Amino acid sequence: MISIINNLSTQYIGRSNFYNYSYKKAIGRNYYVPVEPIEEIVPEDKLNIDFNKLEAYKKEKSEKDTNVQENNQLTDKEKKIVEELKKRDADVKRHEQAHVIVGGDLVRGGANYNYTLGPDGKRYAIGGEVNIDIALENEPEKTIKKMQRVVATALAPTDPSPKDYAVANQARRNEAEARKELAVLQKEDSYLTLKKYKKSGYKKIFNIYTKYTKNNTTLTQNLSIKV
After folding, report:
1. Does residue 185 surpass a pLDDT of 50?
2. Helix axes 140-154 and 162-199, enclosed angle (nearest 10)
3. What's the first-to-final CA gap in the chain, in angstroms?
4. Buried/exposed 174-213: b ≥16 CB within 10 Å, e otherwise
5. 8 lies in which domain range?
6. Domain presence at residue 147
7. pLDDT tens digits, one per residue of 127-180
8. Rounded CA separation 15/36 (Å)
9. Whole-prediction pTM value?
10. Total domains, the chain
């Protein structure tokens, strides 16, 4: 492209000198008409293609020169800070992505990062968070399974944060409460089932000892069944 542009410039600047008297057309005996040589026609498409290549090259070179210039302008202390920020950025993103991968559909909205501007003018992640759904389900069995997943999600990174541990502990407490509720429901179901059998006329002897707590919320049964 550069060579083509240069050739065209030379031709236009020195156009008056391009009259070629070596090629002569005689008109009469002593008269000659100067003939101007035909200039090379460069297809417009070729010019556009070469121009685009030139612009792309200039842009790439400019970016490289800028990066080199910025790096050269940083002090040793600033260069050290940039390296630390790069490491922090990688650690933060790896940490949060571990939550996202293990959490799956429990994660709401993906990972969010807090950025800071480094001495080199670039942004680096220095903190992050992932929103996790820890709401209780409408059945104890489902709540137990969900809380187990929450614990696994919170502790997925190799270096869980204090907040990660707090979420995991809350999920464990929710799981424990759900197990208590499930145990009560199972005992109530057992009691109602045995009572149903007794009323149905089956020839079975049931010795049922039922003990309720003061608030009548916990049911304990000792069953002895003889057929």
Report:
1. yes
2. 160
3. 102
4. bbeebeebeeeeeeeeeeeebeeeeeeeeeeeeeeeeeee
5. 2-73
6. no
7. 999 999 999 999 999 999 999 999 999 999 999 999 999 999 999 999 999 999
8. 9
9. 0.54
10. 2
